[in-house]
Design goal:
322 residues, alpha+beta, eight-stranded antiparallel sheet, three-stranded antiparallel sheet, 15 strands, 19% strand
Length: 322
């Protein structure tokens, strides 16, 4: 074969390899950029939102999927694909079980490289992973929803995604206000939940009420008020179910009457991280968070504590009663 033909053959053979290499680099770049940009997402804009036919857990998970999609600049159609997929795979519930080692909202599998069990059970992480894989599918925007979802999920029944498309569009429209707010700075204190002050710090019925009660619906997320280490997570007399976090400077925060805890003893948490859900357990007269702050073992007024740190209001104090 002449040198010219050999050169042409090399170009022809090499060109597809070069295209594959460039495409691979582009996909890798997308993965890295998307994962970095969504390392943290504190969902805002969906407080008090309820979806007809869905509970607080499903609503919260749907809001997270939508918010992460917006943070990654995924078009609305991509958010619809993600919601429809989660409806099919988990009913919008963060499942700790599934086929073989499948887990979470999208039934992603650690054995297939989706991440560790702990990562996949983080709705922000699993949503980011879904979008990352979706965005890597060539022309996904023009594909039917079933094909776009199946390109990510590799489902045995891809046509089943279609039945969830109408519901997914309604959910995305209803949660249009959901978005990721910036994570607090390492030294910041954040409000642990959104609600009205009810029973405040001080004397109550002949005893000392050592915290501030914040009324909120069951299932409302409870956030870590500050970075620290979980020192208790589980049943506690009077509190029903609680979480206690030890912070620097001798400060400990207590979160009581929880419906469900999301952290375990020894976990290191960041300010604003979801640690539990508002409940009505223990000695409680209605759904609320009992939020308690201790300074070197002595309870202090949480409202005053936050005011001293630049937070004018820990909760809606118009209904605060001691």
């Amino acid at each position: 074969m002449s040198k010219v033909l050999l050169l042409l053959a090399a170009v022809v053979i090499g060109f597809p390899l070069m295209v594959i290499a460039v495409a691979g680099a582009a996909i890798t770049s997308i993965f890295a950029a998307r994962q970095t940009s969504s390392s943290t997402c504190l969902v805002a804009g969906a407080d008090g939102m309820t979806l007809v036919g869905y509970g607080p857990e499903e609503t919260r998970n749907a809001a997270t999927i939508v918010a992460v999609g917006k943070q990654l600049h995924v078009p609305e159609q991509g958010q619809v694909v993600a919601i429809a997929t989660a409806l099919r795979e988990s009913w919008l519930r963060n499942l700790t079980w599934g086929d073989r080692d499948s887990l979470g909202l999208f039934q992603q599998r650690p054995s297939m490289g989706w991440g560790t069990r702990e990562e996949i059970l983080d709705p922000v992480y699993s949503s980011t992973q879904f979008y990352t894989h979706l965005l890597a599918v060539p022309g996904w925007e023009t594909l039917p929803l079933t094909e776009a979802a199946d390109a990510v999920q590799k489902s045995a029944y891809p046509e089943a995604y279609a039945e969830h498309e109408p519901a997914a569009r309604a959910i995305v429209a209803a949660l249009h206000g959901a978005h990721c707010q910036p994570a607090p700075a390492p030294g910041d204190w954040v409000v642990p939940t959104t609600g009205a002050c009810t029973s405040g710090y001080g004397p109550r019925d002949g005893e000392m009420h050592r915290g501030q009660d914040i009324a909120a619906p069951i299932g409302t997320p409870i956030l870590a008020a500050h970075a620290g280490t979980v020192i208790d997570s589980g049943p506690a007399t009077g509190y029903g179910l609680w979480v206690r976090i030890e912070h620097s400077g001798g400060i400990t925060t207590v979160y009581g009457h929880n419906n469900l805890n999301h952290v375990h003893v020894g976990d290191h948490v960041q300010a604003g991280q979801v640690i539990a859900e508002v409940g009505n357990r223990g000695e409680s007269t209605g759904p609320h968070l009992h939020f308690q702050i201790e300074n070197n073992g002595h309870a202090v007024d949480p409202v005053a504590f936050y005011r001293d740190r630049g937070h004018p209001s820990l909760c809606d104090e118009t209904t605060n009663q001691s």
